[in-house]
Amino acid sequence: MDNEPNIIAFCCHYCAFTAADLAGTMRQQYPPNLRIVRLPCSGKVDVNLILQAFVEGADGVMVAGCEIGSCHFIEGNKRAVKRVAYAKKLVEEAGVNPARLEMFHIAASQGPLFARTAHEFTEYIKKLDAEAAEVPLATAAVDGESA
Amino acid sequence: MIVAERKPFEEIYECVKRHRKVLLLGCGTCVTVCMAGGEKEVNVLANQLALAARDRGDDVEVMEHTITRQCDDEFFDEATMKKVAEVDAVVSMGCGVGVQFCAAKFGDTAIYPGLNTKFYGATLEQGVWAERCAGCGECVLGDFGGVCPVARCSKSLLNGPCGGSADGKCEVDPENVDCAWQLIYDRMERLGRLEELEENRPMKDWSTNRDGGPRTVTREDVKL
Lengths: 147, 224
Known about the structure:
A: Rossmann fold; 4 helices; globular; B: 2 domains
């Protein structure tokens, strides 16, 4: 499991979390790398929650809220979009590729979409990890040639 | 309140990386309200520094602490001073006043500012703060309907407006800056005091402003 990325998914109770549950009920598999943190609304997500996840070793963080226009708390998901955008800036300043953080909109009925998103995001993070790992390898090859 | 903005991350990191153990000291008053240097912002910066230090292979340990006010002696309690004694440097997340107060309090511990202090301002809406007072030392708001020509006119004109006023906006930044003199005129008209603006005001005594050097206010009756 060493090469498997750790992914934290902050999910809204009213949509993405229910969608994740539905995906399970529908026997749709999604990667076990994903750790779901249930929030009462995606608008509860805070830049510190996101930063903390990266500090504690997450390779990717996804925030999943309702579709625009269908937030249980009217506009919590719009706030989440803005916070994720700000958090991307903060993590980039700290040297983390901002692509490792992404916002998704998944309705409660979209179990298959949750499973697919989880797959795609996990694969994407694996690709980023592989690219990051290639950099020192490439440097080593250049050094080898010059020697 | 005093409004400030956090310094760019790289500028702070350059200071922090010179030390092994650093305390981020937040301030619970003005800069908490303007979301620049309170407990939460201290936490954000600590997380960013931890990520950056790991990414760059620097050995920096970051501690966090926030006190009620950095410009008052009484809030520098024993617990705070104990934390300061444990570190090589402090990043003050207070305004410029707080940073200097810390520098005076902390003796030989290095101190760095984490914020750029901007102005005395008001919250227009969540996330938007605007300058309202310039601390000139001799308030003239009573003569101008409660709109300050010193802080809000780009030229601090006491006999305005100038030719740069158009459609109620200031030529310096027509999109974001209202012409203070348009606001003064509108307000005085509403108060039925327009004729007062006909009088030319003599030159203001700027010696009560910064022009008279650093200022001190002393109240003998409340001194201990």
